[in-house]
Amino acid sequence: MTVVGYEFVDGVTTITLSRPPANALGEPIIAGLAAAFDQAEADNSAVIVITSAVSGFFAAGADLTLFDNLDQAGFLDYLDRLRAQIERAHTGPWVSIAAVDGHALGGGLELAMACTLRVASAGAKLGVPEVKLGLLPGAAGTQRLPRLVGRGAAIDLLLTGRSVGGSEALQMGLIDRLAGEGVSAVEAAGLLAAALAHGPRDAYQAIIDCVDAAAQSDLGTGMQFERDQVARLFESPDGREGVQAFLEKRRPSFGAD
């Protein structure tokens, strides 16, 4: 059985987690994500959608069955390898979208939070329950969560370990889009991915970098970074094509040399 499925169609890669019963993020998924991200780079994927084939779960977090046999060094080795793959959702040359149907808990939510965008269904459940084990999220959960929802809401979720549904997650900023009634998150994410697949990829990355800079620097520094990026894009092939297409009243063809 394929634990991490891979499909590439028309610029969009779909990475599907399939490790019943709950997509625990153990060695098979770590290895599968590594191979999938490698292939997505080779395919020059513009957009990645990460989803699940396991009913009721996006991913339930770390594989706790491993922990009985690990000392601290072994635990940190496992954690670092898991973190490395989760980070690739954020650092890769693509727009990444987490499609959350069902539970995204602990490391599963950390994987979703590493993505550029998160789409969830109303029935999704998102949370970081590690405190109930006397632990805390170790794959950037304590760092990304407050950046998304603010300090107060992050402290609430981290201290209580409670899960929130899709509507509350949207309200607090934990997800970016809520799938409509009768529509799954993977369907909604697929439509979004298709809409982005043939856009100006250099501009996408510059936008993401500028927004990230806003969270990591003062206003003046961020504004200078923004100025540098838009100046670079102005001289880029896509920037030239976009302006020319507007003036000629036609659809732009981005990505041409």
What's the β-strand tally? 10
Order of helices and strands: EEHEEHEEHEEHHEHEHHHH
CATH superfamily of the largest domain: 2-enoyl-CoA Hydratase, Chain A, domain 1
Number of helices: 10
Architecture of the largest domain, CATH level 2? Alpha-Beta Complex
Tell me the major beta sheet: 6 strands, mixed
Description:
The chain has helices at residues 27-42, 72-91, 107-114, 141-149, 151-160, 166-172, 185-196, 201-216, 219-234, 237-247; strands at residues 4-9, 12-17, 47-52, 57-59, 95-100, 103-105, 117-120, 125-127, 163-165, 177-178. The protein has 257 residues and is of the alpha/beta class. The chain has two domains: 4-196, 2-enoyl-CoA Hydratase, Chain A, domain 1; 201-247, Lyase 2-enoyl-coa Hydratase, Chain  A, domain 2 (Orthogonal Bundle). The chain has a six-stranded mixed beta sheet with strand order 1-2-3-5-7-10, sandwiched between helices. It has a four-stranded mixed beta sheet with strand order 4-6-8-9. β2 (12-17), α1 and β3 (47-52) form a beta-alpha-beta unit. α1 packs parallel to α2 and α3 packs across α4. The longest helix is centred in the N-terminal third of the chain and has 20 residues, at 72-91. It is globular, with a radius of gyration of 19 Å.
Secondary structure elements and pairings:
Blueprint: E1 4-9, E2 12-17, H1 27-42, E3 47-52, E4 57-59, H2 72-91, E5 95-100, E6 103-105, H3 107-114, E7 117-120, E8 125-127, H4 141-149, H5 151-160, E9 163-165, H6 166-172, E10 177-178, H7 185-196, H8 201-216, H9 219-234, H10 237-247
Parallel strand pairs: 2-3, 3-5, 4-6, 5-7, 6-8, 7-10
Antiparallel strand pairs: 1-2, 8-9
Helix pairs in contact: 1-2, 3-4, 4-5, 8-9
